Amino acid sequence: MSLEGKRIGFAVSGSFCTFSRAFEQAGRLRGMGAAVTPVMSFNASSLDTRFGKAADNVAKLEELCGSKAILTLEDAEPIGPKGMFDIYVICPCTATTMGKLANAIYDTPVTLGAKSHLRGGRPVLIALSTNDGLSASGVNIGRLMNTRHYFFLPFGQDNAVKKPNSLTAELEKLPEAIEAALGGRQLQPLIA
User: For 156-169, how does the pLDDT look when each residue is reduced to its tens digit (9 = 90+)?
Assistant: First the structure.
């Protein structure tokens, strides 16, 4: 599989515990020949957490992608009109971000970027990471699964005993899922 020449918007929302694995995937996509542009939610780009300082996270993602991050609504709005990306990947995608997308709320660079990208009928691939995917957020996951041009990275429970409602995407399948979504297909099996 080759992603040579594909233009990927790599959007990151605030599942901070997933950042290191998600960032690895951004670098992997670039290594496969894709042009990768980071997009970060306000929380992802501005909150210092036990998983790292915000400025360090932004700098690391920009270095891995080889391009400047989109961090504002003003910079996210032209994504669609300019046809900047072939696919828009949200990795990780939190329950909050999925809830906003499912209910047409576009108040972060990540959500506005998705809306802008979708206006051209291009695919959005969601790599979910949420502790309540099998509870309150389930309705939003279902709504997005049934919305045209949205695709999901296969996912499963990350710890069925200690966190029975928690779901996380299988990040290692990202290139394969991108290829499927670019072809208008949902990578199967969806649930591990």
Answer: 999 999 999 999 99
Rounded-to-integer distance, Cα 67 and Cα 79, Å: 15
H or E element in which residue 35 lies:
strand 35-40
Half-sphere exposure of 189 (CA within 13 A, CB side): 3
In the DSSP assignment, the letter for residue 123 is -
Distance CA 53, CA 25 (A): 20
Whether 12 and 5 have beta carbons less than 8 Å apart is answered as no
Architecture of domain 7-182: 3-Layer(aba) Sandwich (3.40)
| Cα(153)–Cα(92) distance, integer angstroms | 10
By 3-state DSSP, what share of the chain in percent is helix, strand and coil, each rounded to 5? 40, 20, 40
Instruction: Note the pLDDT tens digit of each residue in 101-119.
Output: 999 999 999 999 999 999 9
How far is CA 51 from each of CA 17, 19, 164, 192, rounded to the nearest angstrom?
A: 6, 8, 23, 27
- CA separation, residue 34 to residues 81, 116, 173 (Å): 21, 21, 16
